[in-house]
Amino acid sequence: MTTARRERPAETGTPIIEVRAISKIYAGGVEALNDISLEVPRGKLTTLLGPSGCGKTTLLKIIAGLIPATSGEVLVSGRPVTGPGPDRAFVFQDFALMPWASVLRNVAFGLELRGVSRSERDEVARRHIAEVGLAGFEDRHPHELSGGMRQRVGLARALAVDADVLLMDEPFSSVDEQTRRKFQEDMLGLLSAHGKTVLFVTHSIEEAVYLSDRIVLLSRRPSRVAQVIEPEIRRGDDPEAIRRHPAYLDTVETIWQGLKRYLD
Amino acid sequence: MKIYGFRVPLMASLIVWIALWEVIGRTGAALVLPPFSSVVERMVEIVPTPTFLKALAMTGEAYLIGNLIAIGIGVPVGVLMGRSVVADRLLLPWVNIFLSAPLSALVPVIMVLFGLGMTTIVLTVVLFAVWIIVLDARAGVRGISPSLVEMARSYGATPLQAFAKIYLWAALPEILAGIRLGCIRAVKGVIIGQLLVSIVGFGHLFEIYFSNFLMEHFWALVLTLFAFAFAIAEGLGYLERRVEYYASSRQQ
Ligand SMILES: Nc1ncnc2c1ncn2[C@@H]1O[C@H](COP(=O)(O)OP(=O)(O)O)[C@@H](O)[C@H]1O
Ligand SMILES: [Mg+2]
């Protein structure tokens, strides 16, 4: 990654997702979210960081329109969310690939559902398969791929529908450590090249600090926004250098302190 | 060759039983049991006759149509039950009752409603086959990974698309298992239907052979039908094993 995130000056930084006073109580009585409000700036990578079980997935699915909130509302590009829409694409923790379908068909699936013709969607899918580094694997099936490669398929599928926003739920948690860093690099490069807005869920502080423009720290359930942190890290540097950079280490430390304060 | 090692004793035991049958038949001790060799002779004799072929065609037709109806109704209903709690609550008790009920007792009711003909036999096949198909399709759909369903929704699948592109495929191993079991039950259905109607197909033949005490004919017919049922079950089992590869890879 030698280029900085591609700027779209007129828009970048203005909120594309606005979460307003969202609460969620599950049918069983579990209070997952309590009066959450936050904004996700356009063209940036925002991370939801919090302990396991604090409601990160719940919030992401509410924004995706997959589950309804108990109260509050979510706006995407100013329009209230009432269900899934073509402006948002989801990347799943467990990949959610169709095991009976080839990589090509999995990546093209969003377009298939929209009724895009076979030849057109295959062409788009091939392009994105190549982008995520899986050229040559088009006709393989998910069970023939490693965890990292499966998630690359999940990423290609999300890119193929050309949504403005990518919602990623712990996409690297089932990817082994060795391939994770390379994948993170590749992903950052791709997302900035496409000018995507990303809302990224993780429970790893290092991952959050390394990847994010903005980190939203969530408290324990019923979760609220504990703190918003914007790591001042110059991307485009050598990844290893970033991980040794004082700003990186400071931010990790700040979050540790924050977690102690808000969680204990 | 494990299979070969298994086949030999199986065939050997069959030969022992056939020999026993032959001996008992030849002694004439059991009036209803002619020797095996004369039954086989009779089999070769009656199978090519027009009466037999007509009965076979008629049976095959009823069997096929009945199974298609059972699959056409059973799979969507099972998928619906797997997806909708309301549908499941409404239908599951009935499916379970019919699954274990002595269905032959209901055939006379169908006879009264639909007469002594093809319709009754087809409906008997449906009655025997459909419940296990529903139950297995339901189980298959309930086993689908929730994230696959959410994936389809988040990428904009309509309910119909989700059914055709996700549920059906994700549940395919269970659906096929249900269809195989349904087809095996349907063999009972088509025979019992014909025996009770007894003026068409093999039911008619059984009726003629039995009332005229043609025991060789009777046993020849029984053996032929057993062979058919066995061949159908084996053929379906073979098909099912071919899709098993992804049942194991399904949970990724
Ligand atoms: N469908 C559900 N029904 C009831 N409770 C749920 C459901 N989904 C999640 N929860 C509960 O809500 C809380 C938040 O879950 P989740 O959003 O998955 O957390 P996270 O993604 O931060 O680990 C957890 O306590 C979990 O047990
Ligand atoms: Mg989660």
Number of helical elements of chain A:
8
| Weakly predicted, low-confidence segments of chain B | none
Global structural class of chain B: mainly alpha
CATH architecture assignment name of chain B? Orthogonal Bundle
State the shape of chain A: globular
- Kindly report how far apart the N and C termini of chain B lie: 32 Å
The domain tally of chain A reads: 2
Instruction: Tell me the CATH topology of the largest domain in chain A.
Output: Rossmann fold
Helix-strand pattern of chain A: EEEHEEEHHHEHEHEEHH
- The separation of the N and C termini of chain A measures 39 Å
Oligomer: heterodimer
Bound molecules: adenosine-5'-diphosphate, magnesium ion
What is the name of the CATH topology of chain B? MetI-like fold
What does this structure look like?
The complex is a heterodimer of chains A (264) and B (252). Chain A contains 8 helices and 10 strands. Chain A is α/β, with parallel strands linked by helices. Chain A folds into 2 domains: 1-87 and 165-264, Rossmann fold (3-Layer(aba) Sandwich); 99-162, no CATH class. Chain A is globular. Mean pLDDT of chain A is 88; it is low at 1-10. With 252 residues, chain B is mostly helical. Chain B has a single domain, classed as Orthogonal Bundle (MetI-like fold), CATH 1.10.3720. Chain B is 85% helix and 0% strand. Chain B is built from 11 helices and no strands. In chain B, α5 (107-114) packs across α6. The longest helix of chain B is centred in the C-terminal third of the chain and has 35 residues, at 215-249. Chain B starts with a helix and ends with a helix. The relative contact order of chain B is 0.12. The model of chain B has no long low-confidence stretch (mean pLDDT 86). Chains A and B meet through β6 and α2 of A and α7 and α8 of B. The site of adenosine-5'-diphosphate has 13 residues of chain A, from α1.
